[in-house]
UniProtKB/TrEMBL annotation:
The keyword Protein biosynthesis applies. It comes from Vibrio parahaemolyticus. One of its GO terms (molecular function) is translation release factor activity, codon nonspecific. This is Peptide chain release factor 3. Residues 27-98 form the Peptide chain release factor 3 C-terminal domain. Keywords: Protein biosynthesis. The gene is prfC. Gene3D superfamilies: P-loop containing nucleotide triphosphate hydrolases, Peptide chain release factor 3, domain III.
């Protein structure tokens, strides 16, 4: 059993970090699955590129999707295991980063 706590994060805590009191614990990490579906993301307003990238980075850290950038251009490609993950990404980006 463990405790769930809330902490103010000033950029030093990341998803998957573990806090312990006493002996150190080691976990194998969050599993990562190879994406089977890919979608290219294009913005109607290029001035929101920074916001979009911030949101996608956070969602990829949470394991919702994986983000890829081709070498030839600045496009953003999102990879997911299932179609539902794309719906979740769109909803989260609209509600949290709009």
């Amino acid at each position: 059993a463990g405790d769930i706590i809330g902490l103010h994060n000033h950029g030093t805590i990341q998803i998957g970090d573990t806090f312990t009191q006493g002996e150190s614990l080691k976990f194998s990490g969050i599993p990562n699955f190879a994406p089977e579906l890919f979608r290219r993301i294009r913005l109607k307003d290029p001035l929101k590129q920074k916001q979009l990238l911030k949101g996608l980075v956070q969602l990829s850290e949470e394991g919702a999707v994986q983000v890829f950038r081709p070498l030839q251009n600045n496009d953003l490609i999102v990879g997911a295991v299932g179609v539902l993950q794309f719906d979740v990404v769109v909803a989260r980006l609209k509600s949290e980063y709009n």
